[in-house]
Design goal:
The chain is α+β, with helices and mostly antiparallel strands. Helix content is about 45%, strand content about 20%.
Length: about 140
């Protein structure tokens, strides 16, 4: 079971990367281990969104990642939050694709809506005024 999970994450990351999504580059996998590129500098990992100051541009970029995953990579992350997005000098980088599903999955829209709600809730907690998650969802599925 763990080998299938590792393979799924590896494949989802490759599909996302090929679609131009800013995500962690998968290197290889073996049984239940996925080897990923290191995201950081001088041995220090880049901070996640929850560990940084954020602004409206970060919100827009997070929503763009969700949209591009759906429209370009044809997947839904299904577990997106402020804990699995790195904030780097070059922009946001998403990781943790083990739960991602194809947009044809029977629960894909439910997962998409949840990803949007999670990201929206985080930015609102940080004091930003952002779009209504229902409006974002409706716009993305068109």
């Amino acid at each position: 079971m763990f080998t299938l999970w590792a393979r799924k994450e590896f494949d989802n990351l490759n599909q996302s990367l090929k679609s131009g999504i800013p995500c962690v580059r998968p290197i290889t996998f073996n049984e239940n281990v996925v080897v990923l590129e290191f995201v950081g500098k001088d041995g220090v990992p880049s901070p996640t969104l929850v560990e940084t100051e954020v602004d409206y541009v970060d919100y827009e970029n997070a929503i763009k990642i969700i949209s591009d995953l759906y429209h370009k990579a044809k997947i839904v992350h299904a577990h997106l939050s402020e804990y699995n997005i790195f904030k780097t000098d070059k922009g946001l980088v998403v990781f943790d694709f083990g739960s991602a599903v194809d947009i044809k999955h029977p629960n894909a829209k439910e997962f998409l809506e949840r990803d949007i709600r999670n990201i929206t809730k985080f930015f609102v907690k940080r004091g930003l005024t952002v779009e209504n998650p229902i409006d974002v969802f409706e716009r993305l599925i068109k």
